[in-house]
Write a structure and sequence with these properties.
Helices cover 52% and strands 9% of the residues. It is built from 7 helices and 2 strands, in the order ββααααααα. It is globular and about 40 Å long. The chain is mainly alpha-helical and 152 residues long. It has a two-stranded antiparallel ribbon with strand order 1-2.
Length: 152
């Protein structure tokens, strides 16, 4: 399992989830380390971004909400069934496709992790920018579909 983030300036650091599961305490640790390191790398202060994540249990857990509030991280309100709005889902799909296109398949979890990191670093900035510029259209499509599925 892999956790990653993105900003309008580029992709953040990736983080391996070692046992394949993540609880709220693990998620908070990632936010406190990997997310903060990514924001620092791009020069973002607490007033420079709005954090977006979905309604997964670990994201909506009381401890996670308390952490985000304590750290003064503003969170974008999120409709319950709107994966269409999540640009990181498209990044993950792109990553999976690129890994699948490789001539040599990973033969161990260590090899897979190396491949994921290599492909993560290769994701084009133009692709990231296209996801950001598509957000107004995505929002309109979701509203029009009354939070149902859209072409995104």
């Amino acid at each position: 399992m892999f956790w990653g983030c993105m900003t309008s300036k580029g992709l953040g650091y990736g983080c391996q989830i070692y046992d394949g599961t993540m609880k709220a305490v693990d998620y908070i640790h990632i936010l406190d380390t990997t997310l903060k390191d990514s924001l620092k790398y791009y020069g973002y202060g607490s007033d420079d971004f709005i954090f977006q994540h979905n309604n997964d249990r670990k994201h909506t857990a009381t401890a996670t909400k308390a952490y985000l509030e304590n750290e003064e991280i503003e969170v974008l309100p999120w409709p319950s069934q709107s994966a269409d709005l999540s640009p990181i889902e498209h990044v993950c799909n792109y990553l999976k496709v690129q890994i699948g296109l490789r001539d040599k398949r990973p033969t161990s979890i260590h090899d897979l992790w190396q491949v994921v990191l290599e492909e993560w670093e290769k994701i084009p900035m133009q692709f990231i920018q296209s996801l950001y510029t598509s957000m107004p259209k995505r929002i309109q499509a979701v509203l029009k579909a009354r939070e149902g599925h859209t072409r995104y």
